[in-house]
Fold this sequence. Notes:
Blueprint: H1 5-18, H2 28-35, H3 39-51, E1 55-58, E2 64-67, H4 76-84, E3 89-90, E4 93-94, H5 107-122, H6 127-131
Antiparallel strand pairs: 1-2, 3-4
Amino acid sequence: MHVSARADYALRALLAIADTGGGELVKAATLAEVQQIPLSVLHGILLDLRRADLLVSHRGTEGGYSLSRPADQITVGDVLRAVGGTLTTVRGLPAGSAGYQGVATGLRDVWLAVHGAVEQVVDRITLADLLTPEHRPADPAHW
């Protein structure tokens, strides 16, 4: 698994929005400044998150962005898929499409196992978990 800057930015933006408690609209410029994300990059990320039904945009001078559902219903996996597609890749393709012959045949099974392990972690952790320190394990290996 590779975590791109785009995926990191998307998670940081959604966490900042979620941290408002859901009642406050957050402007893209504010997100960019507070999270130190280039505004031009952030606009594309916010569009992807909106298309994935993770964000709602509100127009107008008092507009901004809000979560489309509660933070405890949005997982890290949802966000990663919205901005990056598949969670794990092999040579730029989804792990499931890797094909091998001969002595390397077993590699596909390894990549699928890695993909499954990543899914188990990122599909279990929600934005709310990340915002609530008591929900986080003392050892991150125990998510």
